Amino acid sequence: MKIPAYPRTKASGVEWLGDVPEHWETKKVTYGFSRIGSGTTPKSDSDDFYDGDVPWVTTSELRETVITKTKACVTRSALAAYSALRLYPTGTLLFAMYGATIGRLGILGIPATLNQACCAFATPTLFDTRFVFYWLWMRRPILISLSTGGGQPNLSQDDLRQIRISTPPLPEQRAIAAFLDRETGRVDRLVAKKRELIERLKEKRAALISRTVTRGLPPAAARAAGLPENPTLKPAGVAWLGDIASHWTVSPIKFLVSTPVTDGPHETPEIFDEGIPFVSAEAASGGRIDFDKIRGHITTEDHKRVAAE
Length: 309
What we know:
Helix content is 30%, strand content 21%. The chain has 309 residues and is α+β, with helices and mostly antiparallel strands. A hairpin with an 8-residue loop joins strand 8 and strand 9 (105-108). It is elongated.
């Protein structure tokens, strides 16, 4: 989709952003929301603080959607005991400040309180919340790149308060947000249909494999291979297997392979960087071995010992 450019632009004053429409202004996020804050986590060993009627949002629930239900709720006693545990109104924009979910977003569809990893932008004055939602979504990679911390990247409330947003007048913000709601919704629906199609194709593949390895090739493929078409069937003698082609036999798999079938060693051999690949169940998926997920390598001597077990 090609969106017509605005007739006149100007430098945004933000190096990475470049030029913006001439009538847009650059505003600091702190000037556009009356409340910017976070929350906290009440002590988990107190029965007085949890299983109440106050929704409590954690960053695991930030998935670029409107939040209408939370996994956990806290009590009014928790609100009274923790000054940092504030109740934010419907429409509040949430941003995950650190950890595995850093940069994830959500908008409250209900009044709720938060844990300490969520930053809340509430009660907008100069901004349309959904415009800022999309703006932060667009800027997520840059914000994450500015985060600090080794094992756990971190953005503080102060970092987020310094954000400068190039914004059009409120009516235009609302028009942009409505356009993005409509167009991203259309894309989401297409993605959902594709996923549904993929699941159906997976089912079809499984059914095709099951039918072919128990009944033989379909008529056209059998004819091309010079094999009998539509062979008669007989009970396999195995309850879950059902009927098979009448000229087939059913044998234990151990009689069909030259190497004994075992469940592997009951003790994990010593693992090395080189040697014979040592495959665990995690590395086997979809009928293939993912060698990027193998445990490591074992020696030839351990391989001979393991194979003999």
